[in-house]
Amino acid sequence: MDTTLDKPVLARAERHPEKAHRPDNPVARKPDWIRVKAPNSPEYAETKRLMRQYGLSTVCEEAACPNIGECWKLKHATFMIMGDTCTRACAFCNVKTGLPGALNPHEPGNVAEAVQKLGLHHVVVTSVDRDDLDDGGAAHFAAVITAIHGAAPGTTVEILTPDFLRKPGAIETVVAASPDVFNHNLETVPRLYPTIRPGARYFTSLQLLARVKEIDPSSFTKSGLMVGLGETRAEIGQVMDDLRAADVDFLTIGQYLQPTPKHAAVDRFWTPDEFAQLAAMARGKGFLMVSATPLTRSSYHAGDDFARLRAARQARLAASA
């Protein structure tokens, strides 16, 4: 069977210059429960054509997401704004790293027009890290949200933001634009941050999520974890507790997949039964929504999940009335 996941892309020096000198980590063969078919549907081709027409980037392509064939067949794409080059160099991420170019002032309008053309009911907007910008790109995020609200007022907007490290006022700027879901991923357990997410700070990410709820208690907040990097079940449980202390509503957990031999190696593949156990643990800790499967990603089935998230909150409020 043809699969996209048995063919890791090469870590070209121009894409990941900071990783070029590293020794190779052999890319482990994926188990049967992670295999997916190569994308080849007409809808996939049309979605790709539309992205190129408007000069837009997607995290689906840049991060080599395994679900791209399924999502693009349904015309679900996660827009990646502020360019395709990240100022950080996380050990797990396949997005290009380096010095980004200037922001495109037409990007908010282009994203909004693409959302309208695709007829999206729910859209996910993420970005590269832009540590080079005074506000980390917060005003640009707000402009994109506002443009989508204007062009497609019936579309709900979910954002997946960087941590805006050392960018005072950035979170407030983004929240003021009224996204329907504010997502920021912790990615892994704090012990692994120095090697897996060296440019970030675990408690900064937690504080961001808590601050969103302080500004707007009615907002939906969301975060995600990868497993398979060497974390323990106890450490995952502690991260869940930390997220609930920050009043995070929705948790996603998926299997880390090594993009190239220069990226962090997979420590192990968690089984579907183990993911079901993690989901049960998270529900027991009080999350409104949990998605935990090997192929779960932050924006996977995001529209359907958002509908369930709203319904879960309404049910909880009704039960406590």
Automatic annotation (TrEMBL):
It comes from Vineibacter terrae. It catalyses: [[Fe-S] cluster scaffold protein carrying a second [4Fe-4S](2+) cluster] + N(6)-octanoyl-L-lysyl-[protein] + 2 oxidized [2Fe-2S]-[ferredoxin] + 2 S-adenosyl-L-methionine + 4 H(+) = [[Fe-S] cluster scaffold protein] + N(6)-[(R)-dihydrolipoyl]-L-lysyl-[protein] + 4 Fe(3+) + 2 hydrogen sulfide + 2 5'-deoxyadenosine + 2 L-methionine + 2 reduced [2Fe-2S]-[ferredoxin]. Its EC number is 2.8.1.8. Residues 12-31 have a biased composition (Basic and acidic residues). Its main location: cytoplasm. The lineage of its organism: Bacteria, Pseudomonadati, Pseudomonadota, Alphaproteobacteria, Hyphomicrobiales. This is Lipoyl synthase. The keyword Iron applies. Residues 1-31 are annotated as: Disordered. It holds the Pfam family Radical_SAM. SMART domains: Elp3 (SM00729). Keywords: 4Fe-4S, Cytoplasm, Iron, Iron-sulfur, Metal-binding, S-adenosyl-L-methionine, Transferase. The gene is lipA. [4Fe-4S] cluster 2 binds at C86, C90, C93.
